[in-house]
Design a protein that fits this description.
By secondary structure, this protein is an alpha/beta fold. It contains four helices and five strands. β2, α2 and β3 form a beta-alpha-beta unit. The radius of gyration is 12 Å and the shape is globular.
C-alpha cells in the first residue's frame, strides 16, 4: 500500500479502520523531510500491519488543531479511529517499528 496524502475532508474516514499512522507535516519542515524516507521504508515492509497517511498542516489546519498538533512532525497512531499513541519530532525507524508493533 502506498502512503496516502489526506485532507481535512477525508482524514476521519482514512483513519477509521485498522491501524493507521498519520504524519502531520509541512513542506518547509526539515525534520519532516528527514522522516519521509523512513516512513516510505516502513510502508514497504509493514503495509500488511499499518496504513500510513500524511496530512499537510499548512493546507489542513482544522484537523491539525483538532488533535492539538503544535510541533511537526507529529505522528499519531490510530486504531479503529482512536488515537492510541503519539510521537513528536524525528524518530529513527526502529522506534517507529516498535511503536507500530506495540499496537498491531
Amino acid at each position: 500500500m502506498a502512503i496516502e496524502n489526506v485532507t481535512d475532508k477525508n482524514f476521519a474516514e482514512q483513519t477509521s479502520k485498522g491501524l493507521v499512522l498519520a504524519d502531520f507535516w509541512a513542506p518547509w519542515c526539515g525534520p519532516c523531510k528527514m522522516i519521509a524516507p523512513v516512513l516510505e521504508e516502513i510502508d514497504g515492509e509493514m503495509s500488511e500491519k499499518v496504513q500510513i497517511v500524511k496530512l499537510d498542516v499548512d493546507e489542513n489546519q482544522e484537523t491539525a488543531s483538532k488533535f492539538g498538533v503544535m510541533s511537526i512532525p507529529t505522528l499519531l497512531l490510530f486504531k479503529d479511529g482512536n488515537v492510541v499513541d503519539q510521537v513528536i519530532g524525528y524518530q529513527p525507524k526502529e522506534a517507529l517499528v516498535d511503536l507500530i508493533n506495540k499496537h498491531a
